[in-house]
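Homework help board

Subject: predicted structure for assignment chain

Our instructor gave us this sequence and asked us to write out the predicted structure in token form, then describe one feature. I got the tokens but I'm not sure how to describe them. Can anyone check?
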Amino acid sequence: MTRTAAEAFDLRAGNCLSLVIMTGALAKELGLPVYYQRVHSEETWTRDGDFVFRSAHVNIVLGHLAGDRNQQVTIDFLPQENIRGYRTHLIEERTVIAMFMNNRAAESLARGQLDDAYWRARDAIANDTGFLDAYKTLGVVYSRHGNLREAERAYRHVLEHEPEDPTVMSNLATVMGATGRLEAAQALLQELRRIESYPPLHFLNQAQIALKSGDFRAAIALFNEELARILSYHAAYFGLAAAYFELGDITSARENLTAAMQNSTKRRDHELYAAKLERLRSYEAR
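My token output:
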């Protein structure tokens, strides 16, 4: 969950955006100059129910940018090895607020709260009309609500600025198919296949199919393919743990279950993995 500064401080936990917002609020109270940065790291995809979300990463710089670099501090809530060498660019606070509202909109969408998701996405756009992710979220809200014309308008607005965004192309093709324009939808999907060989979480989906069918070695290879794309995706580590357990490799199962817990971003996932890890340790002790 994307928490406010106060919530993140009280719970001592939050995703990177929540922790950046909390740090910015504390720094302002101390009178420190605050700057926000978008980190152009590899895209991270996560799934919640039947939704697939793409995550962006931000960090924060404290100190005057025009001054001595030794007087600046960059605070990032990911391990340095995960972000070393990636390009950054400054973003305004209104963009950070738009990102926060869009995250909240996506979370409401995943819970089926379409009205709440709609207003949060609109708030995100009101804060920063150039933040395209909010239009993507709004398009999904419209589509889920049955407002296909409005959904198409939102998707086409994004494609005017990012003409090869694969997620938006896929969503637009779905809308076009639902409104009877099957040839146009197929043409768009053909173009999408040219741009993107494998859709988000492709290897994870295939790995889970292999796992359910009992082909554990194939599942391990596919989960590792997914981790090669998204090193920190907790669900892939969890899948590896399950496959290794079925093969009797308890040590590898424990290592991957620990990695799943350490890389989880939601409290419920962390608690789930912690409980399974405790049961696995009890199993080892027998």
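Reply (TA_rk): Your tokens look well-formed. For the description, you could write something like this. The radius of gyration is 21 Å. That's the kind of observation they're looking for.
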